Structures are given as C-alpha cells and as structure tokens.
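Annex B. Sample input.
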Amino acid sequence: MARIAESELVINPDGSVYHLNLRPEEIATNIITVGDPDRVSMVSKYFDEVEVRKAKREFVSHTGRIGQKRLTVLSTGIGPDNIDIAINEIDALANIDLESRKAKEQLISMNFVRIGTSGSLHPEVPVDSFVAGAYGLGLDNLLSFYDYKPNLGEAALEDELKEFMEYAGKVPFYACEGSPALLSELGQDKFQGITITSPGFYAPQGRELRARARYGVGYFKSLAQFKFRDYSIMNFEMETSAIYGLSRLLGHRALSTNAIIANRPNGAFSKDPYKAVDKLIQNVLSLISSSPLF
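Annex B, continued. Sample output.
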C-alpha cells in the first residue's frame, strides 16, 4: 500500500485531520450529518452521554452514546464541496493509519445518516413532513472528479430521466443510490423518493431575486412528474447526492432524511422549522436506537 504524502492528507500537530479537527478515537462508526452547526447540539441533547465536543470552522462535532450505541453528529455546512471534505476526512480517520499514512488492511464500513431540511416539489408533500431519499440526483459536478461507476439502478435512472427531459444540453446530472438497508430501517413514516442535490440555493433551485435564472422554478416543477420505478422526484436540497456517491465509493452505507420546510408548488414555508427538524431528529434517533444496523 502506497504511503500518502503530507500534502495529500494534512494532519494537524495534535494528530487530528486538517479540517474536522478530529482524531481517530474521537469518532464513532455511526455518523449523523447536519448542515447547521447549531443543529449538532439539537441532536446531542438526546444522547445519554457526550464524550467529545470539537469545533473548527463550520465543522462542529459531538460524539456520545444512546444506550450502547456510539454516535457522532457532525455539521458539514452547506453544499457538496463541504461534503467532499467531511466524508473523505471521516473515512481517513477510520480507514487510514495516520502515522504510517497507509490505508489499513481491514477496512471499516460506516453508516452516514443525514438529518437536513429541504423543499418539496409536490403539493401533496406538505411542510413539516419527512422525506427519505432512495436516490440522490446531483446537479453539482463533484462526482465527475471521481472514478465513479454507476450501478445498474443508477444507470437506468439516468437513462430514463434523460429520455424524459428529451435530453439536449439540459442541466447535467448524475444519480447515486442511497443504502436500501438503511432506507428500510429509517424510511418509516416518511415519503420516499428521489432527492435533487443542487449546488446553490437561488438559481440552482429555480429562485430569482435580481439575477435572472437560466432554469426557472417551472423547469424544476416539471421534474416532479418523472417517475422511476416506484419513486418520484420529491424534493431538493444541497448535500444528498454527494453523501451517497462518496459513501458508496468508500464502502459505506448512507441515507438522507429531510424535514420539508418549504413547499415550492404551494409557495408555503413552515411556521416552525425548528420544531419540524426536532421531530425528525427524535424520529431518526429512535429508529437508530432500535436498529441492528447501528
């Protein structure tokens, strides 16, 4: 196994990885990702014990236990670029010997569960409801920088969506599947479908303030009519496809769950998004506590 150079994997003087400021013993194999740093404490307040608290830039992490299950909750900030940092550095902590700078012979498979917020593309998926993503549909370009080979389901989804859009110079995209096992365990009481991951909040999601968008909200609403197997395009946010793609590349399981705080067709926004997110946190933690996969 080749040694990884200092320029490629940066280690801080205290032995922690560069951006996350975490050491290997400070993470669990079960990782909950949230975007907002303030949401970390919203999750960890339900832990029976918190043993590690770390913060650097937008990356805040708490590691603790619920019963006998050890969990790390990590804020990633917003967007696929931050997911690139978070997933790679968490994997490095688990699967690279930071002293020898070589990948370990025995690799660890981890669980990544996103608890986020999202906008719905369907009138019948109301604000304050929950969505679990069977697939992530990436409108960003992160996975184009990796040697990612779509599985049969991902390739079929891409082909069918290109045909649906009469694909000719439209928005480029890629599809990544979440973990079917985690979807089965954590998808209860949630709408299940395809989650769009956009590289921005305004024009990349069809919003216009003063700058004109090339693809208006009508374009994105039209995607809600697409159906792949039993799944419709349900919602969009800014992290899911990157989490799914990198997790599958590195041999991990991943699932994205989102509280719907905006309904784009209805023009509605949650009257209490904090409450909606808190309910999703409690729901996911309860399911994790009873699942044999964690």
